[in-house]
Give the backbone structure.
Amino acid sequence: MYAVAEVLDESCVAHKGCRLCIMYCPEANTIMFDPEKKVAVVNEYSCKGCELCVVVCNAAKHQAIKMASR
Amino acid sequence: MDKEKIKINPEFYDIMPVEYQELVENATYGKEDRGWKDVGSSKELIEEHSLCAGCPESIAFRHILASLPNPEETVMVGSTGCTSLVFPHIALHNIHSLFGNQNAVASGLKRALAYRFPDKIKDVVVLAGDGATVDIGLDMTLQSWFRQEKFATICFDNELYANTGGQESGLMQKGFVGKMAPAGKQFEKVDMPGLAKTSGCHYVAMLTSSKPNRVEKVIRNAVLIAREIGPTYVQIYTPCILEIGKQMMEGLQEMRDSEGPGQRFEYQEFITDEAKAYMEAKHPKKKRKKKRVEEKKVD
Ligand SMILES: Cc1ncc(C[n+]2csc(CCOP(=O)(O)OP(=O)(O)O)c2C)c(N)n1
Ligand code: SF4
Ligand code: SF4
Ligand code: SF4
Ligand SMILES: [Mg+2]
C-alpha cells in the first residue's frame, strides 16, 4: 500500500488563480491544472506521497487535498 | 538541437511513449516568454527521477528548467551527487562529468561550441552539489572564474554530501553534526558568494528555492549575463531533508526558516556595472501579460 494525493474538486480554488500545490510539488508534471474543470488534478503514477501539496494548500486555508491509499 | 529534431514521424506516433508525445506537443521549447508560470499547464522538461519524496532539490530543478531562457540551445553540465540522479531524466542536452570536474568540462565545452557554431547562441549551465562545487571541485570552480569563462555555475547547497550519507562539506554550518560527521563541523561555512565576487563573477546570487519567481529572475540573469559578459554564480539552498532529520513535507518550511533577515540564506544579489548595463540594453525586464495571482501570498 502507498499514499497518493487527491484533490477535492469542490474545495479547490484553482479557478481563482491558485497554483500553490502545482508550484511546490517536488515532482514534475504531477499536479496539473485541468483547464476544463478548472481544478488541480494529481497524476497518481508520479506522486511520491510527500504531502507537501497538503501542507501548502492547508496553509492557504483551502483544505482541498487529502491523502488516499492505493 | 531544435524542436524540429525531436518531432515524431507520424507513422510511429502511436508507438512512442506518452511522455515523449507530450514533450513534443506541449513543452515550452521555443517560447520566448517561458517561465515558472508554465508549470501545471505545459509539459515540463523533467521526467520522473529517483530523488527522495519531498526533496527540495527536485523543486529547485523544476523551477530552474522552467526558467532557462533557451533550453534548445543549452547544454547542462552536472556532477556526481544527488543531482546526478535527475540529469538522465531531463529533456536537455547534458554531460555528466567526473566528480568535481564540472567547471573544467564546461569551460572546454563553451569554447568548443563557440568555435563550432559561431553564428548560434549556445548557453552552458553547470549544476552541481556543494561537495562538487566547493570542496572537491573548488580548484576547477575558481579557475574557471579567474579565466572569465562564459557559463553559469549553479550550486545546489544542501550543506553536506547527501548522496554518500551525510559527510561534512565546506558549505556545512559550523557546529552541525552529520550522520557521517559525528564530531561536528569545526569551521565556518565557506563564504562562496564572497569568493565568487572576488574571483571575477559578474553576477552572484544566494537564495533558497522557496520562491519560484525569484528563482526565475536569478536564473535568467545568470544565464544571460554568462552568455556574453562572463562567469556567474548562483547558490540555492536545497536542504537534504533526509540528512537533517526533517519529514518529507517539511522542506519548504526549512527553506523559509533559513532565508529570514540575518539567516544564512538571506537573499543576496550582486551584479557588476558592466553586466547591469548589458542587461538593461539587451534584455530589459519582461512585462508579463497576465497578472500572477497567488504570487504575493507566497512572498
Ligand atoms: C572522484 C570521486 N570522488 C568521490 C566520489 C564519491 N561521491 C559520490 S557523491 C559524493 C558527494 C556529493 O555531494 P554534493 O556534491 O554535495 O552533492 P549532493 O549529493 O549533496 O547533492 C561523493 C563524495 C565520486 N563519485 N567520485
Ligand atoms: S493549493 Fe489547494 S486550492 Fe490551490 S490549486 Fe492546489 S488543490 Fe487547489
Ligand atoms: S504528495 Fe508530494 S508528490 Fe504527491 S502530489 Fe503532493 S506534493 Fe506532489
Ligand atoms: S538524500 Fe537528501 S538531497 Fe538526496 S534526494 Fe534524498 S533528500 Fe534529496
Ligand atoms: Mg551536497
In short: The CA atoms of residues 107 and 149 of chain B lie 6 Å apart. Chain B has a mean pLDDT of 93. The pocket of iron/sulfur cluster (ligand 4) is lined by residues B 51-52, 55, 57, 82, 158, 162-163, 240-243 (CB under 6 Å). Chain B touches chain A at residues 22, 36, 39-41, 43-44, 46-48, 51, 53-56, 58-59, 61-62, 65, 212, 248-249, 251-253, 293-294, 297-298 (CB under 8 Å).
